[in-house]
Amino acid sequence: QAKKLGKAKYEVFDPKMYVQAVRRLELESELRQAILQQQLILHYQPIFCINSLELVGFEALVRWQHPQRGIIPSDEFIPLAEETGLIVPLGNWVLYEACRQLKSWQDKFPAAQSLSVGVNVAGKQLYSSDFLDTVDSIMAQTQVDAGYLKLEITESMLIKNTERVIEVLAKIRQRNIQLCIDDFGTGYSSLSYLPKFPVNILKIDRSFIIAIDNGKQNYEVVQAVVTLAKALNMKVVAEGIETEAQLNNLQSLAVPLGQGFLFSKPLTVELAQEMIVAQSSVISN
Ligand code: C2E
Ligand code: MG
Ligand code: MG
Ligand code: MG
User: Which domain of life is it from (predicted)?
Assistant: First the structure.
């Protein structure tokens, strides 16, 4: 008995676990500071019309400019932000900043007037009782036209609290804000649920786009998604296009929009702006 207890005690004080827990607490308090001290920045990945290769907008992706560790990619702190609830203030800042930036581009560059911006929204944000108020106040503050804002949610967020989620999503659509299902095809949502959600864009996950080069059946899966989207009156965006072959296949499938490293990685504000300017010279010449 004593031996058993002793062992359990030892496990509680496993130094490795202790170090990990301390590291997490440090990271959490650093992230809290990062939000306050404006160490977060947005990068913008361009989204193109697959046929005309015209720029149609950007997806805003958050980065952490850490004073010691340099730029930290979202994968390395978004999960922690989600677990700790910090995702709510963080996500609200992202929404504000993306809207502010789009409006400023639209005011500055004629070619930016019809560009849209996509913003990722986490479950905790969508479920929070003041989400709609936050959206409204950000729209009012930044004066961005609702039609140019796209909120990206994932399938897994649709499975929880279905009735309430449908209500909130419907209210978002009533404001003419667009709604995307991000990483479509990777969640567990049953297809029969899809028509119930007032969502108007499907973003096909990168894993399907990668697979498209490897055989007829994968091509047909993407074709089926495109058909489904059409039937439900939804637009389609292909994520993670990396090769010419993928692009050709998506063109022949009549997928209208796409993003990926073949076109461009997520860009700093300055580089995104250069891309807008380059497009305007194409348009005016
Ligand atoms: P996501 O929303 O699906 O964003 C697309 C991710 O795929 C981005 O990674 C982007 O850099 C990457 N990507 C784009 N094209 C390609 C490609 O051709 N090949 C490959 N291999 N990757 C490509 P990133 O920026 O690291 O973001 C990862 C995820 O973190 C995002 O996935 C999103 O779920 C989350 N995230 C990023 N910013 C935010 C945010 O502001 N709020 C929330 N809640 N989540 C965010
Ligand atoms: Mg996204
Ligand atoms: Mg995605
Ligand atoms: Mg993805």
Answer: Bacteria
